[in-house]
Design a protein that fits this description.
Helix content is 49%, strand content 13%. By secondary structure, the protein is α/β, with parallel strands linked by helices. An 8-stranded mixed β-sheet has the order 3-2-1-4-5-6-7-8, with helices on both faces.
Length: 268
């Protein structure tokens, strides 16, 4: 698939933080810089140093990645709407921009994949959910998955309706984890630890636990493994796992609120 990208080219409409992370991943995987055209007058200077081409949309490309901000999408799409005559795969990483709205701008026969990466993609540790419209073939979806795998793991959705839940879990999820670090550090400080030490402990604990969670042992078993009956962890978990006031019902409400907001934005 890298050969296909090098032969027919890649267009990037927008190349901010997420677009830049994707681009670096592709170049590391073997995509030639001269095969990439970036359409973004405001792209960071370090993108130009990668050797890619800046300018207008070419006549053809294997893939066009739509990486502009959602609020800029309507104004930006006409610059690539005539690309490929239905042979170019469009991959959108814009949150809240539906397949239907993209089809209106790009043409009903255009193969389009929505992908929802999250911010750890910037360090190659993200996870992206993908779903395509009816014009996307299995081979085209494989290509989109290869592109997104450059910045982390991928999953395929059964239908677009699941995208709001994905946004609420993995798209917004890093913010929940960052807030956990904040509050865990603040709790340590309240118990007498110096603030810098409490923050260092909280950051390293969350990062290390995350690495353990990526292994084969299920998270519930990992929890059991570090919980001695009647010990300190058990005392804390009794509070956190309360059916009414604990972490689980709170997080369910938070994710539900994020999903509902995502659905509302998609309708706007």
């Amino acid at each position: 698939m890298i050969d296909q990208l090098n032969a027919r080219g890649v267009v990037m409409l927008g190349c901010g933080k997420m677009g830049g992370a994707l681009l670096r991943g592709w170049l590391a995987a073997g995509v030639r810089p001269e095969a990439v055209t970036v359409i973004d007058p405001g792209a960071p200077q370090d993108i130009a140093a990668l050797g890619v081409t800046f300018g207008a949309c070419p006549d053809q490309a294997a893939v066009c990645v739509l990486a502009v901000k959602p609020q800029m999408m309507a104004a930006a799409l006409p610059s690539v709407a005539g690309l490929g005559g239905g042979e170019t795969l469009f991959v959108s990483v814009a949150a809240g921009t539906t397949l239907t709205s993209l089809e209106v701008a790009l043409g009903a026969g255009s193969p389009i994949v929505r992908a929802m990466p999250n911010t750890p993609a910037a360090i190659g540790q993200g996870i992206s959910a993908l779903v395509g419209n009816d014009a996307v073939t299995p081979k085209a979806l494989d290509l989109a998955e290869t592109l997104m795998a450059a910045v982390g793991q991928t999953v395929r959705l059964e239908h677009e309706g699941q995208m709001d839940a994905v946004t609420a879990v993995s798209g917004s999820g890093p913010a929940y984890v960052f807030h956990l670090i904040e509050t865990l550090a603040a709790a340590g400080e309240a118990e007498g630890l110096p603030a810098p030490m409490a923050l260092a402990l909280a950051k390293a604990t969350v990062a290390g636990a995350g690495q353990l969670a990526l292994g084969d042992t299920p998270p519930d078993q990992l929890r059991v493994n570090v919980t001695s009956p009647g010990g300190t962890t058990a005392a804390a978990l009794e509070v956190l796992m309360d059916d009414r006031t604990g972490f689980a019902p709170l997080l369910r409400r938070a994710v539900a609120a994020a999903r509902a907001r995502g659905a509302a934005l998609a309708r706007a």
